[in-house]
Amino acid sequence: QKVSVEVLDHLEHLALVDFRDSEGVERLQKAIQFADQLHEVNTDGVEPMDSVLEDRCLYLREDDVTEGNCSKDLLENAREKVEEYFVAPPGNIPLPKLEERDTFLQGS
């Protein structure tokens, strides 16, 4: 199954994974083929599950706070922070423009 440039772009932004070369695209296509096997499973009459432990009663425990007011200590571990929040790193790969990626899909 071929992967379109738009799908590739969307997946790269979601996963922060670089599929820039033909090997990366080939790996993605093989993963899709593997996952497509799930369509062959007959699920007629099978009700969706809320939990894999549906045969057990799951009890919620009380949410008792035993420690607290340590946000300043925790934020000392942050590499970068803004006000009272951790700053998540931006995508770890520079993503090429859609037009540039079209050439990578030609060979796959």
Automatic annotation (TrEMBL):
Gene Ontology molecular function, alphabetical: transferase activity
Keyword Transferase annotated: yes
InterPro entries associated with the record: Asp/Glu-ADT_sf_sub_c, GatC
Alphabetized UniProt keyword annotations: Transferase
Pfam family, one: GatC
GO BP terms: glutaminyl-tRNAGln biosynthesis via transamidation; mitochondrial translation; regulation of translational fidelity
GO cellular component, one term: glutamyl-tRNA(Gln) amidotransferase complex
PANTHER family xref list: GLUTAMYL-TRNA(GLN) AMIDOTRANSFERASE SUBUNIT C, MITOCHONDRIAL (PTHR15004:SF0)
Name the UniProt record assigns to this protein: GATC amidotransferase
Species, as recorded: Oriolus oriolus (Eurasian golden oriole)
